[in-house]
Amino acid sequence: MFKKKSIFTFLQAQVAAFVGGITDYGLMILLTEVFKLHFTFSILISGTVGAIINFSINRFWVFKNQSGYSSYINSQLFKFALVVLGSISLKSFGTLILQQSFQIDYRIGRLITDSFVSYGFNYPLIKYWVFKVNEKQNAIESN
Q1: Contact in structure between 114 and 90 (CB atoms under 8 Å)
Q2: Is the pLDDT score of 72 beyond 50?
Q3: Which residues form the GtrA/DPMS transmembrane domain (predicted)?
Q4: What pLDDT score does 143 carry?
């Protein structure tokens, strides 16, 4: 049962990442192509919007950490913000490196970079650090 639940949680997290990611990617292209921002700035803005969507879906659907305690929410938001900051930095830098060093179009470079950042950085930190439920939190929420 534990294994089945872990797989289901992983799949739910991928749906959350996909929805946030599609928003992020689409907004990045809009800001770069229509509003002529450099793609690294577009990634900063679109990554922030995508992160808000991703956080909300993860909090209320995937990991169901909906405690009303403001200190708990603030802790999650702070941790999530740090993950997002790292994620946006890695995505911007990785996309830039692929574009400048290998002349890979920024849209393709972004997809390549995203696949590594999402699975190797975002998911583990979000699951095991941001939305990790400890015994103390379980006791508070069950009362």
Answers
A1: no
A2: yes
A3: 18-131
A4: 45
DSSP line for 11-80: HHHHHHHHHHHHHHHHHHHIIIIIS---HHHHHHHHHHHHHHHHHHHIIIIIS------HHHHHHHHHHH
Residue 123, CA distances (Å) to 86, 117, 119, 130, 139 in order: 13, 9, 6, 10, 25
Let me know how long the chain is. Answer: 143
CB-count exposure of residue 84 (10 Å: 0-12, 13-18, 19+) = buried
Residue 37: other Cβ atoms inside 10 A: 17
Sign (positive/negative) of CA torsion 83, 117, 11, 136?
negative
pLDDT in tens, 7-37: 888 899 889 989 999 999 999 999 999 999 9
65 vs 58: CA distance, rounded Å: 8
